[in-house]
């Protein structure tokens, strides 16, 4: 059965999309720990990130870098943090978490209320700042 993230890639489940190429896809986390919390996934279904082949893993991170740059440019956090967990959704993914202050908590349990309108606005802002990796 397809993972929830494959259903998002296929347009069967809505998302706040940020960026896509033929192999990777990026969208806002629906339960953000900070404004602009983004997920980056390979379109290919693999549960455990470190089961990806070396080239796929490297290219995923290069794609994640391009999205992190777009977050930095559009939302101006201090920096964008990277987190990998994977216990909830069995489809490899990288969390990109904008960090706005020295005291900000970045653990995945730290849920923030963000309205649908603001989620849409954040996805537009990041998406408009995104430039594909070379
Ligand atoms: P984890 O597998 O522990 O790395 O966490 C999976 C993440 O995916 C969580 O932060 C969820 O909020 C997020 N998530 C689950 N379903 C969706 C969805 N339909 N759209 C966006 N994010 C989701």
Distance between the termini: 34 Å
Chemical compounds bound to the protein: adenosine monophosphate
**Shape designation:** globular
The whole-angstrom Rg is 14 Å
Q: What tags apply to this protein structure?
A:
19% strand; five-stranded antiparallel sheet; binds adenosine monophosphate; single chain; HIT family, subunit A; 31% helix; alpha+beta; 5 strands; 134 residues
Describe the structure.
The protein is α+β, with helices and mostly antiparallel strands and 134 residues long. It has one domain (4-129): HIT-like (HIT family, subunit A, 2-Layer Sandwich). It contains three helices and five strands. Strands 1-2-3-5-4 form a five-stranded antiparallel beta sheet. Strand 1 (17-20) and strand 2 form a beta hairpin. Helix 2 (54-75) crosses helix 3 (116-129). Adenosine monophosphate is lined by residues 4, 13, 15, 29-31, 39, 85-89, 108.
Summarize the structure.
The protein has 134 residues and is α+β, with helices and mostly antiparallel strands. It has helices spanning 4-9, 54-75, 116-129; strands spanning 17-20, 24-28, 38-42, 79-83, 94-99.
What's the helix and strand layout?
Blueprint (H helix, E strand, L loop, with lengths): L3 H6 L7 E4 L3 E5 L9 E5 L11 H22 L3 E5 L10 E6 L16 H14 L5
Antiparallel strand pairs: 1-2, 2-3, 3-5, 4-5
Helix pairs in contact: 2-3
The structure holds adenosine monophosphate.
């Amino acid at each position: 059965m397809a993972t929830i993230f494959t259903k998002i890639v296929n347009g069967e489940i809505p998302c706040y999309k940020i960026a896509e190429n033929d192999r990777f896809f990026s969208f806002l986390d629906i339960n953000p720990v900070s404004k602009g919390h983004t997920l980056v996934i390979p379109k290919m279904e693999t549960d455990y990130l470190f089961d990806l082949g070396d080239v796929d893993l490297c290219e995923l991170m290069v794609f994640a870098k391009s999205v992190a740059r777009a977050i930095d440019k559009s939302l101006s956090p201090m920096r964008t943090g990277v987190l990998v967990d994977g216990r909830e959704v069995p489809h490899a993914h990288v969390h990109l978490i904008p960090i706005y202050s020295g005291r900000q908590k970045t653990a995945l349990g730290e849920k923030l209320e963000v309205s649908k309108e603001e989620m849409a606005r954040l996805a537009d802002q990041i998406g408009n700042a995104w430039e594909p990796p070379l």
